[in-house]
Amino acid sequence: MKFFLFITIFIFLFSTAPNTFALTPTPSPKATTTPQATEEPKGINILNNLKDRIASRVAQLNLVEKRGILATVEKVTDTQITVIDKRGDIRLIDVDELTHFSSPSAKGTFGISDITKGSYLDILGLYNKQSKRLLARFVDVVSIPVYIHGAVMSQDLENFTVTVI
After folding, report:
1. Pairing of strands 152-156, 133-142
2. Fewer Cβ atoms within 10 A, N terminus or C terminus of the chain?
3. Phi and psi for 77 in degrees, rounded to 5?
4. Which are the contacts of 138, defined by CB distance < 8 A and separation ≥ 6?
């Protein structure tokens, strides 16, 4: 019986939540006028200006993409290369001071003046969708391999030639 009474008192004491009080009262928010109310139009103007600049930059980025072309040189000037691509379309390639030229056969410096008509170029750069021009960043002279299909009829080991049918 004592055990039953002890458990009842124990449950009664710990089942009720004690009241707690703060030592200092929490201050309530007061209605005051803030100086930010007069600065809102200035902040809105700055925000709108920033939105317009971001929108124009996004539009510019959508007009330009990275692209590469493999083509034959038709004409070369100081700042532009005219090429004919695989489909027979004429492409205009703009060249600036950031364009890097290279050729496997060059012994030293290689530039736009060393490019000749009829050579094959591998061009990487920024393609403008609106003007349909490529601003070249890397221009490499390449040799396109020739593939021959058939059966070997004879071979000349002294002259290193093969006859293919």
Report:
1. unpaired
2. N
3. -120, -175
4. 99, 100, 102, 122, 123, 124, 125
